[in-house]
Amino acid sequence: MTRHPMGAAFCLAIGLTTAVAAPLHADFDADSYPAYETCALCHGLSGQSRLDRFPHLAGQNPAYIQAQLAAFLSGIRRNDGGQMSSIVTELAPEDLPVVIEWFAQQDPPPASDPPDSDLGQTLTAAAGCLGCHEVDSDGAVPYLSAQHAGYLSKQMRDFRDGRRDHGAFAEMHQEIFSGMDTGIDEIAAYLASLERPE
């Protein structure tokens, strides 16, 4: 018996449609992945981000990470586009200590090359930045050393312009950076060149 070529094509099409329509059962289980991988897309798995719009979290003060997560969750800290406020809601309360410990225990990021000028060091001393942000600071104070200079510059300008207005020291930062422009970049470059402690 001769088979019609259109009949074979029809059977093939039906078979493919059935295969596509059948439910797919992958072995992927999102719950089996550690919570910090949610943060890794922007901040890097080891806490060293590739883009300066996302801060390095590696070796950061755990109390500071905890305070910022709480601020994003409560809505008192906002960022451009609300990405962090959205992402942190994906983390269960029991995930937060895991995320904090993971990033705080990673090796700190490398410092950038020292700036050519000493102006940043002079301005940093005048602003008193390291008086609170030095390596042995207590409380929820971030390390600024070895951070992206671009990130630091933006945060200082956000404080200056009132866009970052949460926290007990927002007004102090606003006053420190008031009227400062290029000096902010000098401070950021100097801080980025400092080694973060292990």
TrEMBL record:
InterPro entries documented for this protein: Cyt_c-like_dom, Cyt_c-like_dom_sf, Cytochrome_c4-like, Cytochrome_c_Oxidase_Subunit
Residues the record lists as binding heme c 1: C39, C42, H43, M84
One GO cellular component, as annotated: periplasmic space
Main location: periplasm
Stretch forming the signal peptide: 1-21
Molecular function in Gene Ontology: electron transfer activity; heme binding; iron ion binding
Pfam families: Cytochrom_C
Keyword line: Electron transport, Heme, Iron, Metal-binding, Periplasm, Signal, Transport
Residue span(s) of domain Cytochrome c: 19-107, 115-195
Compartment(s) where it occurs, according to its Swiss-Prot or TrEMBL record: Periplasm
Residues where heme c 2 binds: C129, C132, H133, M172
Post-translational modification: Binds 2 heme c groups covalently per subunit.
Record-given protein name: Cytochrome c4
Organism the protein comes from: Tritonibacter horizontis
Gene from which this protein is expressed: cycA
